[in-house]
Amino acid sequence: MDIQQNIPLAPYTTVKIGGPADFFIHTKNSKEFIEAIKYGQEKKLPITILGNGSNILISDSGVRGLVIKNNSTEIEILPDNKVKVASGVQLSQLINFTLDNNLLGLEEFAYIPSTIGGAIIGDIHGDNKSLFSQFIDSVEKIDNFIVSAVPKLNPGDSTQAKEKVKNIIQKKSSIQPMNSLGSIFKNLPNQDPSGMIIDQKLNLKDFSIGDAQISPTHANFIINNGSASASDYLKLIRLIQSQAKEKLNLDLELEIKLLGQF
Ligand SMILES: Cc1cc2nc3c(=O)[nH]c(=O)nc-3n(C[C@H](O)[C@H](O)[C@H](O)COP(=O)(O)OP(=O)(O)OC[C@H]3O[C@@H](n4cnc5c(N)ncnc54)[C@H](O)[C@@H]3O)c2cc1C
């Protein structure tokens, strides 16, 4: 096992923000992933799993303990139209693989830059608002760490499903920037979507602090224009929250996770 020290985590996130991990192991398959978890447990290190880092703001001072970057890639066809997928597999890769095998169901999760582990932990919502958990048959875990999963799929002709995936990618790629963490705030019940509130009621679209900017194409996304720090990014989040409270008496709640010390 290659155990590295003091490794900057920014390159391992979609938004390219985040300080170093004390210890870092990059795992390429489930066997290495399990070994890395066991190593961290034996050494009594706090363990953080990193999928694509597309839903976490990592602090500028980084993460203490062991960070495992999970790049396991196995997908295995099982009997009865089932598939077992390692937690580090890209969701897009699983969608393509299942459709190529005429197994349908996951299309609405197209474009989300997630690993399977991240999708299960976050119970992500798809384009039709379904939750990922609705499509999961079983999960293999070590303690709280997801190793692999078997999704629920239906056999059928994938021609239309592939078209649906293409349309979702086309629609979302024009408004949802990848140099971000996805939606920053949850939508509040009985209110306009948070992006609309930030754009039309708070007039904050485009507003920036340092290189952290509220996206010109989707106001619930905050992008990194180059060298944004986690501190700038969080200042912008707090500014939106305080204006929503002061001007509209709304409590915008984070959809992303904060990792490390802020
Ligand atoms: C452009 C864009 C569009 C997005 N669209 C959507 C969307 O439509 N719907 C939606 O719900 N989200 C969306 N997101 C948010 C994000 O992609 C999802 O939350 C995604 O599931 C995060 O997965 P990840 O692999 O990047 O996990 P990470 O961000 O790396 O990790 C997220 C959390 O899961 C934990 N984790 C990851 N893997 C494991 C594992 N194997 N075992 C235990 N814990 C683990 C991490 O420790 C962390 O706490 C979007 C993000 C972007 C940038």
Descriptors:
262 residues; alpha+beta; Uridine Diphospho-n-acetylenolpyruvylglucosamine Reductase, domain 2; Uridine Diphospho-n-acetylenolpyruvylglucosamine Reductase, domain 1; globular; binds flavin-adenine dinucleotide
What does this structure look like?
This protein is an alpha+beta fold and 262 residues long. It has 3 domains: 4-70, Uridine Diphospho-n-acetylenolpyruvylglucosamine Reductase, domain 2; 75-173, 2-Layer Sandwich (Uridine Diphospho-n-acetylenolpyruvylglucosamine Reductase, domain 3); 194-259, Uridine Diphospho-n-acetylenolpyruvylglucosamine Reductase, domain 1 (Alpha-Beta Complex). It has 6 helices and 15 strands. A 4-stranded mixed sheet has the order 1-2-5-3, with helices on one face. β9 (136-142) and β10 (145-151) form a beta hairpin. The structure holds flavin-adenine dinucleotide. Flavin-adenine dinucleotide (FAD) binds next to β3, α3 and β10.
Summarize the entry for a quick read.
The chain is α+β, with helices and mostly antiparallel strands. The protein is built from 6 helices and 15 strands. It is globular and about 55 Å long.
Summed up, the helix count is 6
Domains, number: 3
* CATH architecture descriptor name of the largest domain: 2-Layer Sandwich
Q: Class of the largest domain, according to the CATH hierarchy?
A: Alpha Beta
The oligomerization state is: single chain
Overall mean pLDDT stands at: 97
Query: How large is the share of residues in beta strands?
Result: 25-35%
Derived structural class: alpha+beta
Q: What spatial order of strands do you see in the largest sheet?
A: 1-2-5-3
Terminal CA distance reads 31 Å
What name is given to the CATH topology of the largest domain? Uridine Diphospho-n-acetylenolpyruvylglucosamine Reductase, domain 3
Please outline the major beta sheet. 4 strands, mixed
The backbone outline, from C-alpha atoms, is globular
What helical percentage do the residues reach?
A: 25-40%
